[in-house]
């Protein structure tokens, strides 16, 4: 199996690139942000809880997030692998993911970090808000808070996998195709090494 973590700050292009990779490598794309937004749309208890954090740009608590992720993985056992997008966002989540994969005899193949600077992120997300309808994209102070949360809580996850020799970085600037080609290259390298 190929188990990829597409990593990077909000607006770094994880979702866009995940969709490109799904076609190339036939993997299941799991975005915890999308799962939360679906729950909000369906007005479930999970959605109500998640919304209170998402509206402020804070992280949804680990226990809630990890359970939701596990359910999604367990509901899709017959896949060739996964692209995790927006998960893990804390060391706790990374440890839970490792444990879950190891229980099934699997492991994380590679974490790919898309590097994009804060001001570029703000510009991108304000633009995305015009079409995404996402309230957390429409307000600069919420975007900057999401970026700060990324630095404070999430960036350590890249270090966690780097210590295992399983992390790499790709510049998140350029055309969608250019970045997709770079991602394909580093994934193929990881698969043969
Ligand atoms: P995203 O679509 O990945 O930008 O996520 C949107 C929002 O959903 C984040 O700002 C968090 O509030 C929440 N969220 C998504 N994934 C996670 C996660 N792995 N852990 C905690 N909160 C998350």
The rounded distance between the terminal residues' Cα atoms is 15 Å
Radius of gyration: 16 Å
| Uncertain stretches | none
Task: Please give the count of helices.
Answer: 9
Cross-sheet strand order for the largest sheet: 2-3-1-4-5
Overall geometric form: globular
Structural class call reads alpha/beta
Q: Mean pLDDT across all residues, rounded?
A: 97
Q: Roughly how much helix do the residues carry, as a percent range? A: 55-70%
- Major sheet characteristics: 5 strands, parallel
Could you describe the 3D structure shown?
- The protein is an alpha/beta fold and 193 residues long.
- It is 61% helix and 13% strand.
- It is built from nine helices and five strands, in the order E-H-E-H-H-H-E-H-E-H-H-H-E-H.
- It has helices at 14-25, 32-41, 45-54, 62-74, 91-103, 118-132, 135-138, 140-162, 176-192; strands spanning 2-7, 28-31, 81-85, 110-115, 167-171.
- The chain has a five-stranded parallel β-sheet, sandwiched between helices.
- The longest helix is centred in the last third of the chain and has 23 residues, at 140-162.
- The model has no long low-confidence stretch (mean pLDDT 97).
Keywords, separated by commas or semicolons:
single chain, 193 residues, alpha/beta, 5 strands, 61% helix, globular, binds adenosine monophosphate
Short structural summary:
The protein is of the alpha/beta class and 193 residues long. The protein is built from 9 helices and 5 strands; from the N terminus they run βαβαααβαβαααβα. The site of adenosine monophosphate has 17 residues, from helix 2 and helix 3.
């Amino acid at each position: 199996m190929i188990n990829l973590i597409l990593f990077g700050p909000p607006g770094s292009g994880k979702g866009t690139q995940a969709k490109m990779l799904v076609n190339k490598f036939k993997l299941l794309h799991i975005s915890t942000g999308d799962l939360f937004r679906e729950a909000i749309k369906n007005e479930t208890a999970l959605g109500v809880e998640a919304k209170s954090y998402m509206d402020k740009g804070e992280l949804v608590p680990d226990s809630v997030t990890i359970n939701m992720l596990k359910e999604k993985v367990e509901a899709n056992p017959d896949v060739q692998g996964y692209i995790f997008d927006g998960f893990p966002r804390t060391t706790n989540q990374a440890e839970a993911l490792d444990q879950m994969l190891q229980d099934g005899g699997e492991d994380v193949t590679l974490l790919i970090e898309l590097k994009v600077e804060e001001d570029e992120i703000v510009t991108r997300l304000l633009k995305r808000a015009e079409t995404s309808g996402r309230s957390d994209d429409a307000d600069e102070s919420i975007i900057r808070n999401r970026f700060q949360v990324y630095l404070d809580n999430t960036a350590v996850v890249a270090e966690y996998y780097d210590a295992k020799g399983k992390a790499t970085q790709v510049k998140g600037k350029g055309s969608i195709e250019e970045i997709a080609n770079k991602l394909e290259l580093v994934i193929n390298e990881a698969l043969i090494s």
